[in-house]
């Protein structure tokens, strides 16, 4: 495989990894606060269709991305209201949110099927973008690719080095203890859930404005579930989420290249299963034997909290 073949493949891997990274890093912050939101897929779909609709209507991709972020936050607030205020079951509510997102996105997007939109512009950095091989690989992407990496860096710093990050982790590890020393557990969790919704909405915007610049019903194709698995795969550590997103992005693109190569004797349906099969295998391995001790799930993950009256 020469560089002319390898470079486009690597660029495609980066594109495939970006929505996974955005959604997973948002869910990581949510889960660090002790909240399990399984509605990532639904928030991504709503973000994707809202971003597309606003971009088509206004001609501005930036407005589309902002609208997608607010759409993700709005859905996350619905989840927060039901689970944090009304004490509904987090798993059931998250699943309902995904089903709701699938339905709403299909309804809104029905009039946009087949409508073209200009792909999100690549940022050209004079001098750096023109470097052979490394230029396109490192400095030839759109704003959301760089934003995904920047958000990961900021989240890693926030959780490890900031006072607010320490409070967030404390709430996720022992909500009663955090409450007893005066921290507003519900407020912290609302903010974490909103951040997760924001990232999921932007991840959806990336799909409809850059990765596949069009609206296709169900275009997330299970990426929200893979993002959820990535958080566990990364043991709730931001840098591992970054690496895991690119690994899973690579698996996704590998199966497409293998199908395109032909002659390997494996049915296309089996090749399409590879990213999801890899997810199952990874989760099985890290949940068994000596790997189990490396899982650092927040102690209060998924557990409801009712402040003492």
UniProtKB/TrEMBL annotation:
Protein name stated in the entry: ABC transporter permease
Bilayer topology: Multi-pass membrane protein
Quick check: keyword Transcription in the entry?
A: no
Q: Does the keyword Cell membrane apply?
A: yes
Instruction: Extract one GO molecular function annotation from the record.
Output: transmembrane transporter activity
Transmembrane portions of the chain: 6-26, 38-56, 62-84, 91-113, 133-159, 190-209, 215-234, 241-258, 264-286
Q: Which organism is the protein's source?
A: Zavarzinia aquatilis
GO cellular component labels: plasma membrane
Superkingdom, taxonomy of origin: Bacteria
Instruction: Kindly list the places in or outside the cell where this protein is found, as annotated in its UniProt entry.
Output: Cell membrane
Keywords annotated in UniProt: Cell membrane, Membrane, Transmembrane, Transmembrane helix
Q: Which InterPro entries match?
A: ABC_transp_permease
Pfam families per UniProt: BPD_transp_2 (PF02653)
């Amino acid at each position: 495989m020469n560089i002319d073949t390898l470079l486009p493949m690597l660029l495609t891997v980066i594109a495939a990894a970006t929505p996974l990274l955005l959604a997973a890093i948002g869910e990581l912050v949510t889960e660090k606060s002790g909240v399990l939101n399984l509605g990532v897929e639904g928030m991504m779909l709503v973000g994707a269709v809202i971003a597309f609709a606003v971009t088509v209507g206004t001609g501005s991709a930036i407005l589309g991305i902002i609208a997608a972020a607010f759409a993700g936050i709005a859905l996350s607030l619905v989840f927060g209201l039901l689970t944090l205020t009304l004490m509904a079951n987090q798993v059931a509510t998250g699943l309902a949110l995904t089903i709701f997102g699938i339905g709403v996105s299909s309804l809104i997007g029905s009039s946009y099927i087949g409508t073209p939109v200009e792909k999100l512009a690549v940022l050209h950095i004079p001098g750096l973008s023109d470097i052979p091989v490394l230029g396109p690989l490192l400095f030839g992407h759109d704003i959301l690719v760089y934003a995904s990496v920047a958000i990961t860096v900021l989240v890693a710093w926030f959780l490890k080095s900031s006072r607010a990050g320490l409070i967030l982790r404390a709430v996720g590890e022992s909500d009663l203890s955090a409450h007893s020393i005066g921290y507003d557990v519900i407020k912290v969790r609302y903010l974490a859930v909103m951040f997760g919704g924001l990232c999921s909405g932007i991840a959806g915007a990336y799909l409809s404005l850059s990765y596949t610049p069009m609206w296709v019903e169900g275009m997330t194709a299970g990426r929200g579930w893979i993002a959820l698995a990535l958080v566990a795969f990364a043991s709730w550590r931001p840098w591992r989420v970054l690496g895991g997103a690119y690994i899973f992005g690579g698996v996704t693109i590998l199966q497409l290249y293998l199908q395109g190569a032909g002659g390997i004797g494996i049915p296309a349906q089996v090749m399409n299963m590879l990213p999801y099969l890899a997810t199952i295998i990874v989760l099985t391995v890290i949940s068994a034997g000596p790997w189990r001790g490396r899982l650092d799930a927040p102690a209060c993950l998924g557990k409801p909290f009712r402040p003492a009256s």
